[in-house]
Amino acid sequence: MTINDRLAWLAAPLARQPWQGLLLFLAALLAVAILQAPHLIAANTSVHGHWLGLWLMWSVCCGIIHGVGFHPRSLVGRLLLLPWLAWPSLLYGLWLMRSYFIA
Asked: What one-character-per-residue DSSP string does 2-57 give?
């Protein structure tokens, strides 16, 4: 079994409809929050560093790509877009942006 097959096997449980839909919804929710209130994660106006914005935008991209049902074939694509890495990143990003949704 190659590494590419192992990554496909690892991502297979999240390739089902309810998980994909939820991941797409969370990614869209975080994308709207980042676009509407970038000052919550921006480097100059918040306590978070510059890399947090990049990391959250990567998790949004990964969540949307996996949420619409795209599954990359290459090893690099599978490593970069692994949904198991996007889930905690999206949840952490939504937790950081909670003041946008509550207030």
From this structure: -HHHHHHHHHGGGGSHHHHHHHHHHHHHHHHHHHH-GGGT-TTTSSS-HHHHHHHH
Within 13 Å of residue 24, how many CA atoms lie on the same side as its CB? 13
The C-alpha atoms of residue 103 and residue 98 are separated, in whole angstroms, by 8
Tokens standing for 55?
A: 């990391």
Which of helix, strand or coil describes residue 11? helix
Which has the closest alpha carbon to 18: 70, 59, 69?
69
pLDDT band with cut points at 50, 70 and 90 for residue 77: confident
Question: What would the pLDDT profile of 4-34 be if each residue is shown by its tens digit?
Answer: 788 778 777 777 788 888 999 999 999 999 8
